[in-house]
TrEMBL record, chains A, B, C, D:
Leader sequence segment: none
Pfam families (UniProt xref): Thiamine_BP
InterPro entries found in the cross-reference section: MTH1187/YkoF-like, Thiamine_BP, UPF0045_domain
UniProt organism field: Hyphodiscus hymeniophilus
Biased composition (Basic and acidic residues): 125-136
Residues covered by the Thiamine-binding protein domain: 14-105
Descriptive protein name: Extracellular mutant 15
Family: Belongs to the UPF0045 family.
Compositional bias annotation for Polar residues: 137-146
GO cellular component terms, A-Z: cytosol
Residue ranges, annotated region (Disordered): 115-146
Upper taxonomic lineage: Eukaryota, Fungi, Dikarya, Ascomycota, Pezizomycotina
PANTHER family in the cross-refs: UPF0045 PROTEIN ECM15
Length: 146, 146, 146, 146
């Protein structure tokens, strides 16, 4: 088989968690912020969550962007970086990553599992609890209070 | 050294992505929904996003819960399951996973990077764009429109 | 459904990559060595490779061991640790992790893909190339020279 | 900052685990074998282990190769594929991935932890135990018998 002609997937959804190694402190928020500025500048569709950043687009563009994130963090002085990337491709349908959450929420809503108030367990700066309706927006994170 | 006396961490933040293997279709939303019902019933603090589910608690409880998720999905007929788990522990501070996002967003807000409207690139069913303010809630996913 | 009665899987295969964060240097080999001593002391079936350590056993035992690894590395002064765990369970058959490699190698051997000498691309300290036969032992890593 | 000029890292070590979703059976060894043929044809330095395949080279080449692996598996009929990729880059030194294992083994050897016979816990088809010397080759997987 002629592998040289194999193209990379035209679209993929990648979720990556970039970890700086050998940094003076255990905090990595400055590095993560630098990466978020890069993501924003890329113009690609992405979203940040507490365990990583999800980005969607052509395989080559997505992987170049994550590679640039490594270079960027190296440029600000980090000698070693390890990332974990979950990447998915499918040929049966085109589905934006945000639709995955809404599809599951619709299944849960059908049996009432998502029909509830959500109380975030950590109080807001103003001390008031935040109350949100599960599934009130496509990308909402649902969190079950303790 | 006496390893037998080593305890597991009192708290951890885990983000897992559970993948059923050998299913008749490429859709896994029913399995994910079943896992979400388990998460809700656990009473633990968790959140679902498009690339996985983040859960926080004592190491043993979190790992037992993810193990139960495997058993649950096996019970509904899936012969093989592979999960990717990103798990973090730290001894320098107690930080709820939702605080990670807000800390990064505060850094971005300081240089204006997060001071913007967010246009979700995929239109809602009603054809209207959804508009949200970045960082308007602790756990919001920020998404940059194309 | 009564989730409380859900057991964790009786057996699983986990591959974990433990990353110390906020260490003075970019080298993590001392931490990895400490974890390997723990693995050895556990008496469980495991193997180390360049990208992680694979361990097999009951879900609870495997997860406790990885949790102990976090505690151990915290005890030697690392404030923050992030691990990536790939964990698989299956109900259709019992397969030791080393059998996965041999099964694939047998498929490759059938079409001659594995019938070759392997030249390691980096010279040994003594400057001589190391030559090994692919598949000469069940767990051998196969490496294709440049 | 001009992100457009950011290059991707000149070298990286990636370890990926490719999972076909929606396949008729729970066995994925044929898909893994197809990917191994691609790896061999690439001429890049790589190694397969029970939990994935490690490959080293320029970021763009490595990511293109993994993307081609997705396309290849889609071509043989798999509608959906999810991969987990652990990828590391460092600017402080050039280290081939096989050196990571030998460095840890040398630390273990110094305190005798690696000076032992290895008994593989699962008997060979002929019922005889397989005995190997830990660290007898740079890339050997070390496995501790039960």
């Amino acid at each position: 088989m002629d592998y040289a002609t194999l193209a990379t997937p035209p679209v993929c959804v990648a979720d990556f968690c970039l970890i700086p190694i050998g940094t003076p402190t255990a905090s990595v928020s400055n590095e993560v912020a630098a990466v978020q500025r890069l993501m924003k500048a890329s113009g690609m569709s992405y979203s940040m969550h507490s365990a990583g950043t999800t980005v969607e687009g052509p395989w080559d563009d997505v992987m170049r962007l994550i590679g640039q994130a490594h270079t960027l963090v190296h440029q600000i002085g980090v000698l070693r970086i390890q990332s974990d990337i979950r990447i998915g491709t499918r040929t049966d349908k085109k589905q934006h990553f945000s639709e995955k959450v809404s599809k599951v929420e619709s299944i849960l809503a059908a049996d009432g599992s998502a029909d509830q108030k959500v109380i975030v367990s950590d109080p807001e700066p103003d001390g008031k609890e935040r109350i949100a309706k599960v599934g009130e927006e496509t990308n909402s994170l649902t969190e079950q209070g303790l």
